[in-house]
Specification:
By secondary structure, the protein is α/β, with parallel strands linked by helices. 39% of the residues lie in helices and 22% in strands. Keywords: Cell cycle, Cell division, Cell inner membrane, Cell membrane, Membrane, Transmembrane, Transmembrane helix.
């Protein structure tokens, strides 16, 4: 209840004090009613949003439960990789080595690292490319592409049909190529082209050398050597091939000799090197 502004005290100062005191009390009472405290504001906000908080908590519990459940399921022994299916037309690759390498793969149907497994399998001799696929629920399919040798390469390696060098043990008969490491595809194309040109003559390339300066040298299956030089002239090459049967028949170009085709208007022939006693 507000204090009256009228006072019977003759002291005007006291009268004004009562009036002022009444006004201050009324102002404080109105301020308390109009401005709620901090806890009151919190209770009001929670009361308006509690359903949303409950929904968020339930969703978090659900997600956590699903995650734990999935982790438990995918790590059951039932999903561990237990079988390997090997596919591919294999002649040089040992399937037993592929199986052993696949058995060392870590993980299960869901967690197996196919990239790491493929890298492990590619270390097996004669394997060029490996493709892995999961087979439900606990097996792997290993598709192996084998290296197909096209020529011996340099002193130790082989060259596959794509012109890619690789290292493996091989005892079969193949032409021998030698040249810069990056020249494998170019030399393989040249080998095929030379063989097509020589086929009508009953000859084939036994060896092909490309020097660092780009000069070509052919070794034929009869032991003769043909020096073509750099950027052999196609027209001159075709003229020589047409003349070769008669020249060979007349003994102008003996087997095992050396033919130098680097001249613009002809060629030279050297007979085979005589075998000395020291040989």
């Amino acid at each position: 209840m507000a204090v009256s502004g009228i006072s019977w005290d003759k002291n005007s100062g006291t009268k004004r004090e009562l009036r002022n005191s009444g006004r201050q009390g009324s102002s404080q009472r109105h301020s308390t009613l109009e401005t709620p405290g901090f806890l009151g504001r919190v209770r009001s906000w929670v009361g308006a949003h509690w359903r949303g908080w409950v929904a968020v908590c339930l969703l978090l519990f659900f997600i956590a439960g699903v995650k734990v459940g999935l982790h438990w399921v995918i790590h059951r022994p039932f999903f561990q990789i237990q079988h390997t299916v090997i596919r591919g037309n294999l002649h040089q690759v040992d399937p037993a080595l592929v199986t052993k390498a696949a058995q060392r793969v870590q993980g299960d149907f869901f967690t197996v690292d196919l990239g790491a497994a493929a890298a492990e399998l590619k270390t097996i001799p004669w394997v060029r490319v490996v493709h892995l696929h999961r087979i439900w629920p606990n097996a792997l399919e290993v598709q192996v592409e084998e290296q197909i040798p096209a020529a011996y390469w340099g002193d130790e390696g082989l060259l596959n049909i794509f012109g890619e060098p690789f290292v493996a043990d091989y005892l079969g008969e193949l032409p021998h190529l030698s040249g810069p490491r990056e020249a494998g595809p170019e030399m393989l194309q040249a080998l095929n082209r030379f063989n097509r040109d020589l086929e009508p003559l009953g000859r084939s390339v036994a060896g092909l050398v490309l020097s660092e300066r780009g000069a070509w040298t052919l070794t034929l299956d009869d032991g003769s050597h043909w020096l073509l030089g750099r950027e052999p002239d196609a027209a001159r090459w075709q003229r020589f091939l047409k003349a070769w049967p008669e020249l060979h028949q007349n003994g102008v170009i003996p087997a095992g000799g050396t033919v130098d085709l680097r001249y613009a208007n002809g060629f030279t022939v050297r007979g085979p090197r005589p075998v000395s006693k020291e040989d």
